């Protein structure tokens, strides 16, 4: 059943002439993992701001159309309550760190403290998420003196600690090395296994291909495509819209252009390796 | 002496944390070098030594023969421009134009020359349409291009890019690729920190792998990505298509789809 529904939603930021989102209609269900991709300035972050209620409650601007979260009109929704249901991890980890706490431990505990969680439970939770994100050794450090990658993990930890039902995550791995990136994806996958809903903006399409159920592609403020991950990510047309496709899809195209045909288009690296290993390959003369 | 040289350079933060241990590296003008390695390996500290933001606690850093210890950061920064990882650490002007014009004006260039430079670099980075806007009204990733433009407008001899592809789409990466080509033509040395292995493989012939405060290998991109031991130590991975090639036994040295197809045909030819 649809939990979040948008019907013909158009939004324009204050002082801007062009809308950042135009005629967006879609529905999102609980428990699914949605990958959000598309060119820069295509509307991905604005979409996140809308889901999180920052639009229209923090950003003014002009909002047209209808949107509901769990049946409630977004314009009337109580954002404080919404913020406990929906965790939001910002694109820029430098923005997320509160700047008012002296240690990483306190930074992660900040949200829980605001909710009035008892101290013992709070400490337990902070240690649990720190272990999960492998940042235990940073707990006593100053959050303002961390590297980009470390900040990104601390920002992630402070949202995970809130135990929301829905996570809206805007590019959580932009500052991370490949290992750190995979770790984040494993944690997101784990959250999904626990029944959480994930809405993830990410340029690393290879990982989206591996983990997401559905993919939404934004372009110039419009929702260009929405569908199951395999169908959307094997659509070569996206390359013309500034959107990268998985390496497996790029390789399949190059093979095909050279007369080497795989039985289907692989979207993940693993799948591509499987197909090539089986040797189930056809040849066409050019 | 047209080079930056790290000579047995080590750096320790005031809290006692040793971030770089005995680095030796030479980057010549007009050369492109990608630095790779896991978070915390010491990449950002190393490049901050190159532009004098950090002075080595042991060893020396020489920029075109000038020892960074004998000059202020401002003096060295004029030769070696540093584009921050986070654009918001760098931007402080009211318009994109003013941001890019700031340093050339500070260096007391004639107004006409300043205007010409702003327009040139804005065109190079495809941000001309944003010149009159407030930098904070434009997308985060475009702000990164504003910071690159602002540094290039000062005409440095070298430029350091810290994670330029983070968050960039295909179009943004194409712009960066073109910027690198242009910089090579005008003999500006480029040092890039990146976690994007496809970007490194497609745009850099020389790669420096760092792990645990040290440089563990400085060499040809193909040699680095072929070396399982180096990949393991620096916790990096081959480009995706290289991983596929390695997994099906086509070799460890494949960097892109074109090379993959060529090798595949050679191996499977009757």
Automatic annotation (TrEMBL), chain A:
GO cellular component assignments: ATP-binding cassette (ABC) transporter complex
Pfam families: ABC_tran
Membrane topology: Peripheral membrane protein
Residue stretches making up the ABC transporter domain: 4-245
InterPro entries reported in the protein's UniProt record: AAA+_ATPase, ABC_transporter-like_ATP-bd, ABC_transporter-like_CS, ABC_transpr_CbiO/EcfA_su, ECF_ABC_transporter_ATP-bd, P-loop_NTPase
Keyword Chloroplast: no
The entry's keywords: ATP-binding, Cell membrane, Membrane, Nucleotide-binding, Translocase, Transport
Localisation: Cell membrane
One MF term in the entry's GO annotations: ATP hydrolysis activity
Keyword Cytoplasm set for record: no
Similarity annotation: Belongs to the ABC transporter superfamily.
Family matches, as PANTHER family: HEAVY METAL TRANSPORTER (PTHR43553)
Protein name: ABC transporter ATP-binding protein
UniProtKB/TrEMBL annotation, chain B:
Chief site of localization: membrane
The keyword Nucleotide-binding appears for this protein: yes
Entry annotated with the keyword Metal-binding: no
CC per GO annotation: ATP-binding cassette (ABC) transporter complex
Alphabetized UniProt keyword annotations: ATP-binding, Cell membrane, Membrane, Nucleotide-binding, Translocase, Transport
Subcellular location: Cell membrane
Domain ABC transporter: 4-237
Bilayer disposition of the protein: Peripheral membrane protein
Pfam family membership, one: ABC_tran
InterPro entries, alphabetized: AAA+_ATPase, ABC_transporter-like_ATP-bd, ABC_transpr_CbiO/EcfA_su, ECF_ABC_transporter_ATP-bd, P-loop_NTPase
Molecular functions (GO terms): ATP binding; ATP hydrolysis activity; ATPase-coupled transmembrane transporter activity
Family of this protein: Belongs to the ABC transporter superfamily.
Protein name per the record: Energy-coupling factor ABC transporter ATP-binding protein
Classification lineage: Bacteria, Bacillati, Bacillota, Clostridia, Lachnospirales
């Amino acid at each position: 059943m649809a939990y979040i529904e948008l019907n013909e939603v158009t939004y324009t930021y204050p002082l801007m002439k062009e809308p950042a989102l135009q005629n967006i209609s879609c529905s999102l269900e609980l428990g699914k993992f949605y990958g959000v991709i598309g060119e820069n300035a295509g509307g991905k972050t604005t979409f996140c701001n809308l889901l999180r209620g920052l639009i229209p409650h923090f950003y003014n601007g002009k909002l047209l159309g209808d949107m509901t979260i769990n049946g409630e009109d977004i314009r009337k929704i109580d954002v404080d309550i919404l913020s406990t249901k929906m965790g939001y991890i910002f694109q820029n980890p430098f923005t997320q760190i509160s700047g008012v706490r002296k240690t990483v431990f306190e930074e992660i505990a900040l949200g829980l403290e605001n909710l009035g969680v008892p101290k013992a439970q709070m400490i337990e939770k902070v240690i649990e998420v720190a272990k999960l994100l492998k940042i235990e050794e940073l707990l006593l450090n100053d959050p303002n003196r961390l590297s980009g990658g470390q900040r990104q993990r601390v920002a992630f930890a402070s949202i995970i600690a809130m135990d929301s039902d829905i996570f809206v995550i805007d590019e959580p791995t932009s500052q991370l090395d490949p290992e750190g990136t995979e770790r984040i994806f494993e944690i997101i996958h784990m959250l999904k296994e626990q029944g959480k809903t994930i809405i993830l903006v990410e340029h690393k399409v290879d990982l989206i291909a591996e983990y997401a159920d559905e993919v939404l592609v934004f372009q110039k403020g419009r929702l260009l495509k929405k569908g199951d991950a395999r169908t959307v990510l094997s659509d070569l047309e996206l390359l013309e819209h500034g959107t990268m496709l998985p390496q497996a899809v790029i390789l399949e195209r190059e093979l095909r252009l050279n007369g080497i045909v795989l039985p289907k288009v692989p979207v993940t690296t693993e799948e591509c390796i499987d197909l090539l290993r089986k040797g189930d390959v056809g040849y066409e003369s050019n | 002496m047209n080079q930056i040289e790290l000579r047995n350079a080590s750096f320790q933060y005031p809290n006692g944390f040793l971030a770089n241990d005995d680095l030796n590296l030479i980057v010549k003008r007009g050369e492109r070098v990608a630095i790779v390695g896991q978070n915390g390996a010491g990449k950002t500290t190393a490049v901050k030594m190159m532009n004098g933001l950090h002075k080595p606690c042991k060893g020396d850093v020489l920029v075109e023969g000038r020892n960074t210890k004998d000059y202020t950061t401002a003096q060295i920064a004029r030769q070696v421009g540093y584009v921050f990882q986070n654009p918001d650490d760098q931007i402080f002007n009211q318009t994109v134009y003013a941001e890019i014009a700031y340093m050339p004006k500070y260096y007391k260039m004639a107004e006409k020359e300043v205007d010409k430079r702003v327009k040139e670099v804005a065109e190079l980075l495809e941000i001309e349409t944003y010149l009159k806007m407030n930098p904070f009204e434009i997308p985060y990733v475009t702000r990164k291009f504003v910071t690159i433009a602002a540094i290039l407008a000062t005409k440095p001899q070298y430029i350091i890019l810290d994670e330029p592809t983070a968050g960039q789409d295909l179009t943004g990466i194409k712009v960066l690729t073109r910027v690198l080509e242009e910089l090579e033509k005008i003999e500006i040395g480029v040092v890039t920190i990146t976690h994007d292995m496809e970007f490194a493989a497609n745009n850099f012939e020389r790669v420096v792998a760092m792990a645990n405060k040290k440089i563990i290998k400085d060499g040809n991109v193909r040699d680095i990505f072929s070396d399982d031991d180096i990949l393991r130590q620096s916790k990096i991975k081959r480009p995706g298509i290289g991983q596929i090639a390695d997994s099906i036994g086509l070799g460890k040295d494949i960097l892109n789809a074109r090379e993959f197809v060529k090798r595949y045909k050679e191996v499977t030819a009757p």
